[in-house]
Structure formats: structure tokens, C-alpha cells
Amino acid sequence: MKDRLSHLQALSASSHVDTREPAATVPHSLKEHNIDPEMEAIFYEADNIRRDIQLILSDVKHLEEQNSRVRNELPNSSTVKQDSNAIAASIKSRAKDVLARLRNMDMHATELEKKHGTNSALYRIARTQYAGLSSSFRDVMMEYNKAEMNHRETCKTHIQRQLEIVGREVTGEQVEEMLSNDQWNIFSENVVTEGKTVQSALNQIENRHTELLELESRIRGIHEVFLDMAMLVEEQNSMIDYIQTNVQKTDADLKNMLGKLENAKKYARNNPFKKIFFRRR
């Protein structure tokens, strides 16, 4: 299975946002001044989503540790593999929940735009929170994808090494084709299984193959989230383009205004009535 997030990475490569963004908790000074309940609700929901994104990131780091244990310490441990699957299931569950809440935040921002206009503080805060959280969520899901793909490549490399031990030279492309077409026996057939070394290599190949199948199942299970994430990034990029267009228009208007102001200053300095006034003083 190829990298499920390659399209997402291409879309978002130029707009990376650190997942460790500051919390959006309502400042204490604002609470003392009776902040608008709608604005407080926006900050409250943003904090909850941000917390869940951080929990996903924590799960991703835990999954990396578990994958490392599978690779380096306990290749035959069903308990470790179950832990990896449980962590991946937790990531999937939280990711689906965050996606749904981001969609709701997006719809709420659109409603605020219709109700209060694009220049209202409520709309701008809601849209800014949505944009930042969407970027953070995208980044943490890319980290998850990276962790699984790195584990996949490590398993493939290990299979290649073990096949060399049993006398079968294969390339990474051949291993990939074997996995894609489910032709596992094509490389292990006709191997003389005499000797502990050869038997151990075959056992490890079988373990890694099982491991890869489980990993593929995990990726397929969260594929829908990846697709929704890709759509969100496309929408986010369109929004960024819209904002950039408006910023450029504002810059152009500002430059035009500054140009007129500079001309006015020059005219003021060359104003004959002003010169007469100063001479008379």
C-alpha cells in the first residue's frame, strides 16, 4: 500500500504550522470585562479541540515507541502488537471526532459571517481558530502517517535481509509487489529449511509479513479520515488564497493612499499661500 497522505503532504507542504500552538484560553482580563458569551464559547471549543489534537500527538509518539519495540525487542510478542493496534484505534477514534468538531466550527464561522459580517471580531476569531486548529490537526495526522510508513519500510528492509540469509536476493520493489499482489510464497518457496539459522530467518519473515498485514489493515481503517483531511486542506488552501488576495488588495490600497498622502505633503510644502504666511510671520 502506498503512502495514503502523499497527496495531502503535497497540498500542505508550504503551509506547515507547529502543533504546539499556544492555548486559546480566554484571558482573565477579558473575563473580568464580561466577554461576549459567543466569543467565550469559541475559545472554549477551540481549547477542547486543541487538547484532543495534543492527545493524538501523544498517541503517535507512543505508537512510535511500540513499533520500535516490535522491531528491536519483541518481534513475536502478541501483546506488543495488540498495544500498537489499540493505540492506532485510539488515534482513529479521536481523529474522527476532531474532524467532526472542526466541520462544526467551520459551519459556525460561516454562520457568524452571515450574521455579523467579515469584519466582526466574532467571525475573525472563529475563522482564525478554525484555520490554526485545522493546520495543527493536519500536521499531527501527517506525523501518524509518517510513523506507520517508517515502520512499514523497516519491516520491508528486515524481510529483505532475512531472505538474503535463506539465499533469495530480492529488491525493495519485489517485496512491494509481493505485498501488493499477496504473493508471499513466491520468495519463500523451494527454500531448504535445514539449520537453525535458516529456520529462524523464515520465522522472522513470517512474523514481519504478519506485522505488515496488520499495519495495512490499520491504514485502511483510517483511510476515510485521510480523505476527509485532504478535502479539509484543499478548503483551507482556498481560504488562504482568499485571505492573501484580500491582504494584497489592502496593501495596494494602502500604498495608493500613502502615495496620495506623500503628494499632499509635497503640495503643502510648495503651497504659495503657506510660503506667504510663513514669510509674514
TrEMBL record:
SMART domains: SynN, t_SNARE. Residues 7-16 have a biased composition (Low complexity). GO terms for molecular function: SNAP receptor activity; SNARE binding. The keyword Disulfide bond does not apply. It comes from Ictalurus punctatus (Channel catfish). GO terms for cellular component: presynaptic active zone membrane; SNARE complex; synaptic vesicle. Pfam families: Syntaxin. Residues 202-264 form the T-SNARE coiled-coil homology domain. CDD domains: SynN (cd00179). Residues 46-73 form a coiled coil. Residues 1-29 are annotated as: Disordered. The keyword rRNA-binding does not apply. Keywords: Coiled coil. One of its GO terms (biological process) is synaptic vesicle fusion to presynaptic active zone membrane. Belongs to the syntaxin family. This is Syntaxin-11 isoform X2.
